[in-house]
Structure to design on (369 residues):
């Protein structure tokens, strides 16, 4: 029998997508094959504390895990970064029952099921690189570029991927003189426009402005989240998504369509509308359009030097059927019912096997270094 792998599942995190991560991580843990893996759940609180958790999975989703976890990192992280060790003066009391078998054991692979800043942006990936531990998903560079909507657009432009018109607004300059930007935007775009913080996800801080008043409000709202703001022309479109999996020879899944319940796919529509937003898999589009999207998805993936997984999102202009790239997500929503796993399921790769492959890819990438 091969040795069981110790898999650290990191969830929560210091981002606006903390709750989404709890759902994704709980789903991953439920699906993982316990014959192959020991699961070591590691939560990061909203405040940034790392906690070792050993309770029921439901309490991850409900948020109750925080109250029944043990702080994992000492003030001096050298002692403990990724080895599970007892904390406090009386380890027997400090540790939740069930954890001791793992004490002192090395974690073999980390699956950072974290979305957004500090999870999907290269920061935790950098920490894991330094700790020399294999981890699921994209490396530092791809994560950072994928998170930054401005930089990913610049890279996509370099490889000739089509995209809508956009403009970068710097918060500092905006605050000094908002009128200059309003004029510049009105000269270059017609309403409505989309306004987004450069570095968030899950539609946090995003708005659609139909006039000057909404533009100013939207810019200010985005400026609360980021020092870089993106303004984009509005595209009347269908939203299509493609899943990519692999390291040096990535494969693209079938294409799926999102039909948002709200005017656009905002935070509420994504996570709290009780399934009124619809996912259609495979999308009802002509075969050559699906092929074009799959090729573009792989091109985008390679352009940012991605590995592991990513979901690449597209807009298909309703009138012309022209495809534009919107964004790449290096740690897409990962519950059993999220688009990424469902796209692979439709391609013949069920959720538990998808997780196996991601762990395998993490090990391969680490060996390849
Ligand atoms: N330029 C655009 N034209 C039309 N709709 C857009 C545009 N940009 C964003 N949207 C809408 O807003 C949603 C969120 O924007 P997106 O750039 O995907 O941000 P996030 O990273 O938060 O998912 C999209 O899914 C889409 O519904
Ligand atoms: Mg999106």
């Amino acid at each position: 029998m091969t040795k069981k792998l110790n898999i650290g599942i990191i969830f929560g995190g210091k981002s606006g997508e903390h709750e989404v991560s709890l759902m994704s991580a709980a789903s991953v843990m439920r699906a993982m094959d316990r014959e192959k893996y020991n699961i070591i759940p590691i939560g990061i609180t909203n405040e940034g504390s790392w906690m070792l958790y050993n309770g029921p999975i439901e309490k991850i989703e409900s948020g109750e895990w925080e109250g029944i976890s043990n702080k994992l990192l000492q003030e001096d992280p050298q002692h403990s970064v990724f080895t599970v060790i007892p904390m406090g003066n009386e380890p027997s009391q400090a540790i939740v029952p069930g954890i001791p078998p793992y004490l002192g054991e090395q974690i073999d692979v980390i699956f950072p099921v974290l979305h957004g800043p500090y999870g999907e942006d290269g920061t935790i990936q950098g920490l894991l690189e330094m700790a020399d531990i294999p981890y699921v998903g994209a490396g530092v560079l791809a994560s950072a570029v994928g998170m930054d909507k401005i930089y990913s657009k610049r890279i996509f432009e370099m490889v000739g991927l089509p995209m809508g018109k956009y403009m970068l607004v710097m918060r500092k300059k905006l605050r000094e003189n908002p009128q200059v930007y309003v004029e510049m935007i009105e000269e270059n775009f017609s309403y409505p426009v989309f306004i987004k913080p450069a570095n968030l996800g899950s539609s946090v801080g995003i708005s659609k402005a139909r006039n000057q008043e909404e533009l100013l409000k939207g810019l200010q709202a985005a400026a609360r989240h980021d020092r870089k703001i993106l303004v984009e022309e509005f595209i009347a479109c269908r939203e299509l998504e493609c899943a990519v999996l692999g390291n040096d020879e990535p494969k693209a899944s079938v294409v799926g369509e999102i039909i948002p319940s709200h005017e656009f796919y905002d935070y509420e529509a994504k996570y709290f509308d009780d399934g009124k937003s619809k996912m259609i898999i495979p999308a009802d589009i002509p075969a050559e359009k699906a092929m074009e999207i799959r090729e573009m998805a792989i091109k985008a993936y390679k352009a940012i030097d991605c590995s592991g997984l990513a979901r690449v999102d597209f807009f298909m202009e309703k009138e012309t059927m022209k495809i534009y790239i919107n964004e790449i997500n290096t740690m897409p929503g990962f519950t059993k019912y999220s688009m990424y796993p469902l796209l692979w399921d439709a391609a013949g790769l069920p959720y538990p096997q998808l997780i196996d492959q991601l762990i395998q890819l993490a090990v391969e990438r680490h060996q390849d270094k």
Observations:
- The pocket of adenosine-5'-diphosphate (ligand 1) is lined by residues 164, 194, 196, 201-203, 206, 232, 234-235, 237, 239, 260, 264-265, 313, 326-327 (CB under 6 Å).
- DSSP finds 13 helices and 14 strands in the chain.
- The first strand starts at residue 5 and ends at 12.
